[in-house]
Amino acid sequence: MESIWAKSNKARTLLEHSEDVYRAFVALFGRPGQITAFAKSWQRFFKLADFELFWHCAEAAVVFHDWGKANDGFQNAVLQKARQILRHEHLSGLFLGLDTVHEWVGSRSDVDWDVVLGAVISHHLKCGEFDETASRDFSFGGRLAGGDGSQIQVLWSEPSCRELWEWAGSRLQLPGGRPQLPTPIWRFGPRPSTFNLSNHAQHVDETRLAPLDRQLRDTPQNANRRRLMWAVRSALIAADAVGSAQLRMADSSLERWVEKCFELPPCTRQQIENDVIEPRVAQLRSDGRWDDAKGMGGWSDFQIKCEMLPPRALLIAPCGSGKTLAAWRWVAKQCERPVQRVFFLYPTRGTATEGFRDYVSWAPECDAGLVHGTAGFELDGMFESPDVGAADHRAGKRFEVDPRLFALGHWSKRLVSATVDQFLGFMQYQYNSLLMLPILANSVVVVDEVHSYDRGLFSALRDLLKWFDIPVLCMTASMPAHRRQLLESSGMTVSNAAGGELDVTSAAPR
Prior knowledge:
Helix content: 40-55%
Structural class: alpha/beta
Number of strands: 12
Largest sheet: 7 strands, parallel
Strand order of the largest sheet: 8-9-7-10-11-6-12
């Protein structure tokens, strides 16, 4: 075989892709002793107790994540000759689970190899418990439905595979030479002169993965390792996505593209006031919906007090009271500490679009973003319809992102209106949502209409508050008592900031 390919377009070999992902990892996180500003945000966001342990584990996961592509089944699938019978990331984990390989990498005692194994097999979020009788495609080491054949040939002897071993040993400073490896013919079930793939998958599951799963359960004693697992897998997913996208980054190098996304000046209070609050107030004044004679220059007492709420707060105020503008005042206050991005999250596409049109879109087009399933359609000609008005300077702006980069296209945005599922979905292991984690790491978040969340989404919100360090303001017109108590137990300060008549209104049944 001439080359071992990583992608179906044959644009990169497996070694080239592995190097691309490694470059992306270093561009994002730097190196021990020289970590990036983004890496510091990542450490704070995940509340990592030992950043060097994280870095070494993530580095190892990056190096080994796609080794399972070095088999004839995957290569035939790439060349469209046949359908593979085993997920490549599962095979990467099965390689790491070999006793001789585990002994080889075990010379690095500064790496949690079970966490690395867990991150590698699940970095495409398609890995369930081992079950040789399961019909699901995603059971660990399970045979894919519709795959061709019942065995694969691992390409141990190919020169390009040997280069991959040498590259890994050099990157991770492992002992010279590669460990002893079993026969290259791996088969589901027993057969002479073949390696029993099913038995090995069961062995790895029982001795490595099941104990890891028990140790990662939600108990105070396991919190640090749980955070480590999440941070390593998320870092691998991000680096893999950037490394895979580097051929679609126009004329920019991978490193330069990452730098443009994360070496940004912080959002400041003045920027939020100039780019969002003042233009919105001017629009309301022009429409006759802002009375400078009322309150303090048109601002109500509760709106002014809102900016003094702590970094974790629940604001209860009725519809029409101006709580969205109050929330932007809170955002401006939070931006007095270093913050790179602001996310305003809504329950529906319609409300997210309205939030973008009324507030976020006043910012420069390079900073303002709209993220939901039909955002591209909504943005097309948003400010060119007759009812917008000829004087609206937003007409002609291009807020769309490069579609070739998919979710990564949003990494350059700094002020974003989005549906809440696009971001909190990472708590439920949604891939695109996990790709948004890097831009959440140093941000401020406003979550609107939290009363409308179903049980799963409300649980995801509580997990965000529990596990991650990020300023969050929740808003609603009313809140059931038991949910209010749950948010208070999650560290939220509750404020019926409107007071007086508005306080009575907000407490009324919906």
